[in-house]
Amino acid sequence: MDTTLAVRARGIGKCFGDVVALDGVDLDVAPGQIHGLVGPNGAGKTTLLGLLLSLAVADEGSLEILGAPVGRALTAPDGVAGFVDGPGLYPSLTARKNLAALATLRGRDARTAGIDDVLGEVGLTDVADDRVRGFSLGMRQRLGLAAALLTKPRLLVLDEPSNGLDPAGKRHVHGVLNRLAADGTTVIVSSHRMDDVEALCSEVTILATGRVVFTGPLSKLSAENRELDYRIRTSDPEAARRLTVDTPGAVVVESSDAELLVVRAEIPALDDLVARLVRAGVAVRELAPVVSPLEAAFLALTDQETGR
Amino acid sequence: MTAVLEAQDTAARPVSVVRGYRFEMVKLVSQWRIRLLVLACWLAPALFVAAVSQQSDLPTDTLFGRWMNITGWAGPLVMLGFAGVYALPLLTSVVAGDVFAAEDRLGTWRHLLVAVRSHRRIFAAKALASLTVITVLVAGMAVSSAVGGVVAVGSQPLVALDGQLLAPADAAGLVLLAWICVLAPTLALAGIGLLGSVALGRSPMGLLLPAVVALAMGLAQMLPLPVAVRLALPSYAFIAWQGLFTTPAQLGPLLIGIAVSLVWAVAATVLAYLLFMRRDFTNLTHDGSGRRALTVAAAPLVGLLAVTIGLLAVATPATGSGIGQDKVQQSVATAFAHLYRLQTQQLHRPDVTEAQLATTVACTKGDGLVEPDGPGNDWRCVVSWHLPGVTATGQAIYQLDIASDGQYVADGDGPKEVNGYFQVRTPTGDQPNPLWQFDSHLDLLSKG
Prior knowledge:
Radius of gyration of chain A: 23 Å
Number of strands of chain A: 14
Strand content of chain B: 5-15%
Order of helices and strands of chain A: EEEHEEEHHHEHEHEEHEHEEHEH
Structural class of chain A: alpha/beta
Number of helices of chain B: 16
Strand order of the largest sheet of chain A: 6-7-8-3-9-10
Radius of gyration of chain B: 26 Å
Largest sheet of chain B: 5 strands, antiparallel
Distance between the termini of chain A: 45 Å
Shape of chain B: elongated
Oligomer: heterodimer
Largest interface: A-B, 56 and 44 residues
Strand order of the largest sheet of chain B: 3-4-5-6-9
Strand content of chain A: 25-35%
Number of helices of chain A: 10
Structural class of chain B: alpha+beta
Largest sheet of chain A: 6 strands, mixed
């Protein structure tokens, strides 16, 4: 037995004509981890996911998937599944027949391939015999996930898996992915929704213009971006505004709303402000970042990169 | 949590062509339009042939149409003529012209590639699946029209294109053979369909390419082209099957037509394969179509056409249009003699043989003012024959409309008792006059 990274990429470069899609990308993803891949449009996320699914090969650099080097297209080792650019489903077939056709394609008996199990896992049992033509985007996403689960993957690559999902559906899918990760499957998801990534991923890689601008744990990303805007609702907005002005390191950004104050501060200054409010007898009814720490970090890093 | 992973040395094995083929068949058969086509091809010809066979007004402008209420074996041949012009190009468009483009439309290429892991096997599976569906559709049309004809009219002898009466079993065999022969040009169109589907991606032109090519080639066949050019087009095999219904069979043009069609089928499929293998499936905005792809696809086929024309011009004896005075006279004389015997039987007169009739024909074109060769509706033939024990020579006149592909209609111009009226009065009542009008087909390659 050998402890190996599920994905190990070094210096990956990929061009489409004159367009540089990926430029010197390094990526390490440990087994059993849910790894987020985020970045603005055109950052190279889909290209990178395509390389992980072995749909194409990098122009330069090296890529190892599940411990095996990938040198040619469509030569990823067994156990890699997923989708890019939406799940590939055939609308004229029912959900069950889509999965049965896929199972048969892979040489398995559709009756014993566990189709009912994966349909149940993604919450599509009730519509198993409906044609995919009538499915919503969210249902298609879930069926795409079911198709990937059918292969019992060890590396699952998903492009925007939460697209079109309602809150309940999203929670359901997140539960499935967390269970998979707990069982040792590595999951790489791309998303443009920071709340999804925060809820799901332990580590994240941020891409901008084909380059990695951050990779590591979410906590590290939040810590790297210290100063944030916070929304504060108190029992005495005027007193709160005065106390904020008096607090070193805290700045009132906006106070147009009579009851709401937006304050920019680092964590220590914010703690100080809260203490001052409490001492002054001002009740704090709401305190929350205007944008999540991850989103703030994402915006800061990608703005910085794209603004070069 | 941290899991432990075992390193793997080998890539996952691609899916076999057989499993890929089954997958493609499942997808094709699940499409309502394919189901509708299968149903239409297996039912509509039978209904059409049965219904038309019961009419008094027959489609006499279509080959074998005038015999539809006489024998059930004329129906599948009428259907074959219609299929070569309209149905088969459209069927190949819908099936082969869409088999690759459908994945572009549905956005399923990446899914398919990840599942199958081999471009080559995906191509093979798709080509075989579309070939299967096309064959099922063609078989449906053949079987359905034959069943419709035989059930509605019965299995009676068929009057061949040289006037000979074919026994039902012989007619059935030739009908089957004729349908098998048109599989070759159908395959050529299917290859062109695959090429269009790969080269033009989501563009509707990809879907329509076989129909457009078939239409262009059909129009070309109507032009007064040299024989070598005509036979170099794969569409000639849609016409050349008519040569099976003469004695001796006109095998030269038929075999050349089939060979040319098969070469086109292979060439177009190989080009489609090469284009498919070169396509980059990671570029989301590009579906493989483009001017360059079209040029790469079209140029080799134009080259193939040029080479084929050159080879046929050198290797075959025929020059010009392939339609000459001797050939026309010989064809009309043969057909007249056979049909005269048929009329003799209808009228319950003593039988005569073709040899006893010693039919001769003298044909002119344009009232003798132009060279007697080439297509046209200004051919005029005077037929002369002898009857045993009768010193006078019988004579009848025909106006001929000869198409540039060698098919012609002879229209009787009198005398009324022989070929001037559409019916003959027999002891059992009026019957269709076999000498009034007849269709035949010239062998464009024979020296005649």
